Known about the structure:
- By secondary structure, this protein is α/β, with parallel strands linked by helices.
- The protein contains ten helices and 17 strands.
- The protein has helices spanning 15-26, 41-51, 60-64, 81-90, 105-117, 132-143, 175-178, 185-196, 305-313, 324-343, and strands at 6-11, 31-37, 55-56, 71-74, 94-97, 123-125, 150-158, 199-207, 212-214, 220-222, 228-235, 240-246, 255-261, 264-270, 278-284, 291-292, 347-348.
- The strands form three sheets. It has a nine-stranded mixed β-sheet. Strands 3-2-1-4-5-6 form a six-stranded parallel β-sheet, with helices on both faces. A two-stranded antiparallel ribbon has the order 9-10.
Amino acid sequence: MDADAIRIxxxxxxxxxxxxxxxxxxxxxxxxxxxxxNRTLESGRRVAAEFDIPDVRSNWLEVVEDDSLxxxxxxxxxxxxxxxxxxxxxxxxHLLVEARMAMDSGEARAMLAASRDSPHLxxxxxxxxxxxxxxxxxxxxxxxxxxxxxxxxxxxxxxxxFPEWDSGLGWRHEREFSGNNVMSMGIWYEGLMRWLGPMAAxxxxxxxxxxxxxxxxxxxxxxxxxxxVEIVGDMACGGMAHLSFSAVAGFAPGNDVWIHGTEGALRxxxxxxxxxxxxxxAGRRGDDRMAPVDIPAGKxxxxxxxxxxxxxxxxxxxxxxxxxxxxxxxxxxxxxVLLSWQTGETVALPLSx
Length: 353
């Protein structure tokens, strides 16, 4: 191995780590995946054998404290993100952490503070991939005045499924593992922030239709995380927003986003695939109808977080997708939604102002 190689340790080896991060890092010249620690030693050994990773560690501390490593990639459930991140940065490691960034905005701010204490280290959150293919075009059209002044963002995100009363219990259903995020709320809000910036205030209503699920032992467990959320609020740059997220609305049409302005409108429809196929339509005052927008190949973004992380370590490019500051912003949004739902009040953002 080249003496100048970047040696990376992996903590947590779930689906995203195996499907994206490991292949992504292996495709970059001069990167060595040196070790892995998973939830159990046996599962870590299986991942190491599958991807030819030379060393398996029994716990995450053995990865963080390894002086031979340059960087750590965290793929655990959110409840471990903050402690591992803060320890890794304190140990002098560059850090890539899977979304969701943290359990709540307090943890996210602590992670941001730790990164600012070590400004020579790269600290990056895995970005939302959902809108990457259209982001540049949408940003440019809004910035160049196509829609005029923002009036309303209407985002409707739904699986189209009816409630599943016998569905199993996953980590996203357990607040102790997943934190305050709800369904895919944070990941879509990250895309919205790329286009129009953050929200300035939110008011939310939510319900938990499936109130219990069975764990691996068959025991019924109460569910406190909603499966349907409605959010209205004000955008910091002007205009209002309506965001709807549902895992229980049967026959709902899927993922559909409208951006209405004083002079024009954009519509984004997201289909299947990983990342989802995105279609963009646009129309202006005086047009008979909206028309498809042809996005040139050179403006279509794509998944490249592993390469951006490595390039940032090498000083080739800065982190743009996604900074810890951006992660704090979407974690504050998720906390504001929870607070509004619980109190019935409008909550101003940012929470840390």
